Amino acid sequence: MFGTHFYNEGLRKLTIAFGQLFNNIIIQNTSSTGAVTRRIRVPLAYAPKEKFIVRLEQQANLQDDREVAVTLPRLGFEITGLQYDASRKINKVQKTIRVKSNEDGKVQNFNYAPVPYNINFSLYSFTATAENGLQIIEQILPFFQPEYTVTMRVVPELDIVRDIPIILNSVNYEDTYNGEFTTRRAVIYTLAFTAKTYLYGPMSNQGIIKTAQADLGSDTDSPLTREERIVITPNPTSADADDDFGFTTTITSFTDGKRYNPVSDTDE
């Protein structure tokens, strides 16, 4: 857009961070004596809910030997919406600046204030039994009260690190157990989340300002009359933003009464 390509991978990083929250959920089955008979790490994939349901329905009969069915338990998640959040808007001309080195010396990389967006996620839990479904849900809900905060490096080039709250909005339950006893059962939980993130625009750069100059006068009518010039430079002049340095101020007075052209920086 506007002829400039950029990609900060903000949404991609957020999606990965969201998935990592649920990537180590484990369920286990026990015998009547309490001994663990089976321990499973629940697989996680980025996929819509409808895809899992279709795969489940493709093996409706437990006696069917087809190999297209989904092995339960399983977790899936997806992005379901994006909304601009005006309540978190900040002054759009604010800058985040970092000084970097390149072949020509020191430059300032900067980015303007980010745009606040709410990203909606849905997490789906598919299990064959109600017990396994409860095990999964109980390993998730206690951590959201109602939000859980993750820390992300959203723009590594500018060393921008942000805390992103992920809010649990709702939990819905569905049991597809109907029909004949041989029909495959699926217990489905759907958890809706909102991640309050920021999206950054393209990064720009500029040279480091080494000199500031101001021309002062008591008359604002054109053409201008310059009465005093103030020039400020770093001391030493070789200093950059990473150094401890002072400033040298030079004040020059003009009493010749000549008119001053600020565009060409010359007297007339």
Question: How would you sum up this structure, described in words?
Answer:
It is a single chain. With 268 residues, the protein is mostly beta strands. It has 2 domains: 10-204, STM4215-like (2-Layer Sandwich), CATH 3.30.2000; 210-267, no CATH class. 11% of the residues lie in helices and 46% in strands. The protein is built from 3 helices and 17 strands. The chain has helices at residues 10-21, 49-57, 130-138; strands at residues 26-30, 36-41, 44-46, 74-84, 95-102, 105-112, 115-127, 147-155, 160-175, 187-199, 204-207, 212-216, 224-225, 228-235, 246-253, 259-261, 266-267. The chain has a 6-stranded mixed sheet. A 3-stranded antiparallel sheet has the order 5-6-11, with no helix packed on it. Strand 5 and strand 6 (105-112) form a beta hairpin. The protein is elongated, with a radius of gyration of 31 Å. Mean pLDDT is 79; it is low at 60-69.
CATH fold-level name of the largest domain: STM4215-like
Derived structural class: mainly beta
Total count of strands = 17
What's the domain count?
Answer: 2
Number of helices: 3
Which percent band covers the strand fraction?
Answer: over 45%
C-alpha end-to-end distance:
46 Å
What would CATH call the class of the largest domain? Alpha Beta
CATH architecture group name of the largest domain:
2-Layer Sandwich
Helix % is 10-25%
Query: What Rg is obtained from the alpha carbons, in whole angstroms?
Result: 31 Å
Mean pLDDT across the residues is 79
Largest sheet: 6 strands, mixed
Biggest sheet, spatial arrangement of strands: 3-4-7-10-9-8
The general outline is elongated
CATH H-level name of the largest domain... which superfamily? Answer: Myoviridae tail sheath stabiliser
Question: What is the H/E string?
Answer: HEEEHEEEEHEEEEEEEEEE
In the predicted model, the low-confidence regions spanning at least 5 consecutive residues are 60-69
